[in-house]
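In the laboratory, one determines a bound structure by crystallizing the protein with its ligand and collecting diffraction data. In a computational setting the workflow is compressed into a single prediction: the sequence and the ligand go in, and a structural description comes out. We illustrate the idea with DP6.
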Amino acid sequence: MNGTAIARAHPNIAFIKYWGNADERLRIPSNGSLSMNLDGLYTETRVTWFNDADRDRLILNGQPTTGPALDRVVRHVDQLRERLGLTGKVEVESRNNFPMGAGIASSASSFAALTVAAVSAAGLELPEHELSALARLGSGSASRSVPGGYVEWAAGGTHQSSFAFSIAGPDHWDIVDVVAVVSEVHKDVGSREGHAVASTSEFQRERVATATSRIDICRAALLDRDFSRLARVVEHDSDMMHAVMMTSTPPLFYWLPGSLELMSAVRRWRAEGLNVCYTLDAGPNVHCITTSEDADEVESRVRSLGCVHTTLRAGAGGPALVVG
Ligand code: DP6
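The predicted complex, in structure-token form:
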């Protein structure tokens, strides 16, 4: 086997968050989640299988890479080899078209693109839900970067049943994510360590128990294009996740003063009539969720705040695709 393929996948922003695993090894999440793919931003990954190579190789943004990044890729490819009965070693060449440290995690798009490229390069064709489940093994949120548009990941209880699916295509609604970057500093505690300590917070049980009802509200708000309903549930879910983070052992405080300044400005702008709400992942940068109609105004207000270094903007994106 000496096949090669190139795939592209978008990162995504969660409206209802994934935080904590029921099964750490398989990345079966404690609760379902819901997200939007981010158009215009992508990871492009070429995978080539070699019969005669002695080890897997990684070239990241043009640089031959070893250490933890290569180890994580090898662990994921090991899972693909085992589950799909593949032999051979891979060369993985991967590139992001968006900057690191801008509040957009690259693990979702990276593991979605890696999975789709590796499967295609091996000459296999798998249904989308299987590709999503396989991508999940590399990074939980990568399962949501396989289908297109607005995407739900139902927690499931097994490898086969824990996958993401599209609930509406990217053209369903012109939601825009304006990312307000308040810090480019790399986070000390990544998502993986964070998931592992989520259950040490007494609030996690409550967050998980009520997640299904927030998903139902969020899904209905998206399908009805009801922004004010969407705004309330998205902010509440983000606040709940951060309450869990802050009260776990060790405590994880991702918010900076600039994050709080933005959160309160976003609430004020909404009260003034703009369609905008906030959500934050495992970092201080604030995703200001708005519609295309209000995006220019939101971006210019965000940029006028002294705490904001730069902004990034993305609408709803399509699925992970083989592009070569
Ligand atoms: C806060 O998918 O990055 O962004 O499975 O360890 O790679 P790993 O974690 P990851 O966790 C994402 C956490 C989050 C919320 C979300 O995207 O749902």
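Residues 14, 17-19, 27, 33, 105, 107, 139-141, 191-192, 195, 281-282 surround DP6 (CB under 6 Å). Keep in mind that any predicted model is a hypothesis to be tested, not a measurement.
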